[in-house]
Design a protein that fits this description.
Radius of gyration: 30 Å
Strand content: under 5%
Structural class: mainly alpha
Number of helices: 13
Strand order of the largest sheet: 1-2
Number of strands: 2
Distance between the termini: 49 Å
Shape: globular
């Protein structure tokens, strides 16, 4: 018992030290955590290339070449386009506010008694427009943040170099790192740890790889659909709805609300509203019957509320690093909780005692509870046998 308790205390100390390192050196670990997540996500693709008799170093190089071309295309095409979308949305925001004040607010006040008089909508619009124009868009905001000091510029450029370099070497040596970590495991817990790591990998891999694919596909579907309907800020609304679709129905709810308001403000008819609803209904059907079953599956084990709590708690405790590791840690914790639940349901604490067993409470509160078959009957007999005869 003492040895088992000592081992548990050592593991608790080890976990505490790791948590302290994340807390104290979070900013320095950020590029390496990003590189590790990148290597974890793309390791299956490199292994597929290995099975086609392509060397691992060559496969990693080809992967980085393709991803670099995709990233350059995104920077040259998508970022400027989305910047124009955000600028257009900011310019149209006064029309949205005017519609909400003159149409939606009176209807809600008449039907449900809601009042929005305390909300300073004009102040919010003016604040957004001024800050957006002063920042000069997305590029201006980024340059303004990284140019506050020479150290910030150096740190930003250093992280920009460290992430791909670290990701390349981690991805190239991934199997070697896994083997060395496996060799360091204590032998008496190695089977259990391997089993839990395998389950964590299945849960985490299904969620991260599958859900990222679902988010990208839904964002493109919503954006193209709203653009085809004629919504001027449709691609921006679709991107927002896709990015938050990791929580079921949240992306669709936010996207429908924004799309319907945009249609009413821009066209003021029921036809475009109906088309917006058709776009999101099609996306939900595709997500529920094709994308999630094929890409994510039903074994992720992460409740939407648990996902939101993990992200918020990670950001509150460890900042940006906490947001990065929130979902991986949540997946691992869910696997550990399932294992603990399984052990608990198989333990004597949970199982019913045999029908002929008796729970005997003796002595003070500090005495242990004894459960033994036939103990209640054997104890009085033994006491009677050892007790001397009383005089008549």
């Amino acid at each position: 018992m003492a040895a088992a308790l000592d081992i548990r205390l050592r593991w608790l100390l080890l976990v505490s030290v790791i948590g302290a390192v994340f807390y104290w050196f979070g900013s320095a670990l950020t590029p390496f955590i990003v590189a590790g997540l990148f290597a974890y996500l793309f390791n299956p693709l490199v292994e597929k290339l290995e099975r086609r008799r392509i060397g691992r170093s060559l496969g990693v190089s080809l992967l980085f070449l393709v991803l670099t071309l995709v990233l350059v295309g995104i920077v040259l095409v998508l970022v400027p386009y989305m910047q124009k979308q955000v600028t257009r949305f900011i310019d149209q925001l006064p029309n949205w506010i005017a519609w909400a004040r003159n149409v939606a607010a009176p209807w809600l006040e008449q039907r449900f008694g809601f009042s929005f008089e305390m909300f300073d909508s004009e102040g919010v619009v003016t604040l957004l427009q001024n800050h957006w124009r002063e920042a000069g868009g997305l590029a201006g905001t980024l340059v303004a943040k990284v140019s506050k000091s020479g150290f910030a510029v150096v740190a930003w450029m250093l992280n920009l170099v460290i992430v791909p370099v670290a990701a390349f070497y981690l991805l190239r040596d991934w199997n070697l790192l896994v083997e060395r970590i496996h060799a360091l495991l204590p032998r008496h817990i190695e089977p259990v740890v391997v089993r839990l790591v395998r389950e964590s990998d299945e849960t985490l891999g299904a969620f991260l790889r599958g859900q990222l694919s679902v988010m990208i596909i839904l964002g493109m579907l919503y954006g193209v659909g709203l653009w085809a309907v004629g919504i001027s800020v449709g691609p921006l609304i679709g991107m927002i709805a896709g990015l938050i679709s990791f929580v079921p129905y949240l992306g669709a709810i936010v996207g429908v609300a924004m799309g319907v308001i945009a249609a009413l403000v821009q066209y003021q008819d029921a036809f475009h509203v109906a088309m917006v609803l058709v776009v999101f209904a099609s996306g939900q059907l595709l997500e529920g019957y094709v994308l999630v079953p094929k890409l994510v599956g039903d074994r992720i084990g992460l409740h939407p509320v648990a996902v939101m709590f993990a992200i918020l708690a990670g950001g509150e405790l460890f900042g940006f690093v906490g947001v990065l590791v929130a979902l991986p840690l949540a997946a691992v914790i869910m696997v550990l909780l399932r294992y603990a639940y399984q052990r608990y349901t198989q333990s004597e604490m949970y199982q019913e005692p045999p029908a002929d067993s008796t729970i005997v409470l003796e002595g003070s509160v500090a005495d242990s509870v004894r459960v033994a078959k036939g103990e209640a009957e054997s104890t009085p007999k033994a006491a009677a046998a050892t007790e001397p005869d009383k005089p008549a």
